Amino acid sequence: MSMFDEISKQINKYPGLVSIIDEIEPFKSELNHLPHFGMVLFGPDSFKQGEVFNIIEYLKQNGFVLIDIKTKRLTKTETENLFLPTSTCIECRSLKWWMIQDSAEMGEFSAAIFYSEKATQNFNCLNQLNQYKGNSNPLKNNCGVIRHDFKAINVCLNLIHIPDTYGDFFKDTSPFYSVEELFSIFSTRKKRDNRDTIEQKQLANQLFLIELYSNNNSYYCFELSLYKVKYFLAEKLYRFCNIIKLDELLLHYRKLYAFFKQCSTREERYHVFLTNISSEQEAIFDIQSEIKDQIANHQNKRHFIDLISAYQISELLLTITDPNYFVQTGDSFFTKLTPYDIIIDLYEQLIIKTTLFQWKK
Questions:
Q1: How far is CA 52 from CA 57, 110, 129, 230, in A?
Q2: Which of 69-78, 222-231, 330-339 bottoms out in mean pLDDT, i.e. has the lowest?
Q3: How many CB atoms lie within 10 A of CB 255?
Q4: CB contact at 8 A, 260 and 227
Q5: Are β-strands 109-115 and 160-161 bridged in parallel, bridged antiparallel, or unpaired?
Q6: Using DSSP, how many helices (H) and how many strands (E) does the chain show?
Q7: Could you give the CA distance from residue 116 to residue 35 in angstroms, rounded to a whole number?
Q8: Helix 222-240 with 244-262: angle, nearest 10 deg
């Protein structure tokens, strides 16, 4: 049986995801490289326990190369597609499906794509990664596996998930990556050992997002929370358009975030916050100007839609950069919400104020 047929058979077990098979078919000739790639799904408990970076480093020390990672909060449908088919495998009768749902609703997930140079058809990257995972029930593990060494809590909160087959690989990555994106990643890795500058920046951006998510429960600081939100929005903008000024702005946000983490006095933090507003606004105006130029010269409908989304996000970013915005919201706006909730709230409040209608004229 060919690898494509095996993957199709595995995916057919999940009726809601069979469309993935049609997406894979154009890449049938490239499946021979698939055994070198695997994925690790980090659950919300990995973030809450602050272990995501530690586990990534552990896997890198054991010969795996992290080549891409994406972080997001899953929808109810995405959660069910990931976990419902496996719920019958739970041995402990006291653990019900709603407990898996509750654990999934704790926060964000990350899908990390790893590469193994030593992988073969008979001992692929997924096989190798699963050696280090451990039993689903942490009580059955001994030292030397992730779920023991990094203190998984129970069957639901067991830090990571690694698919057993490549059918499950495509199922588990589906909330994060399109099939086309995955094969683009595989192709890039196959062609060269060192990823190009853009890909290095994208990976650095995603890893920094993980740091932000992992610090959601840190002590409250208005400026720290504000720059979390700014970075989230700017990184989202980065996905839609590649603008040099945006690279500079992301680096600027990282530096200020690091400063605010170390700074102990509110007066100094607030002074730095105020002195940077003008340069940040100027940078966003420059970014908007370039987005407008790209819209005027867009290549196709998809490109046009992406650029409109980019402009909408830049409007949100500009809004929260304006100090007058916080005259109404104040510190209390950031004390009760996570950065994810703040962004959703901003979208609900401000998206109708963006200039989408201008481009329709």
A1: 9, 9, 15, 22
A2: 330-339
A3: 12
A4: yes
A5: unpaired
A6: 20, 4
A7: 8
A8: 160
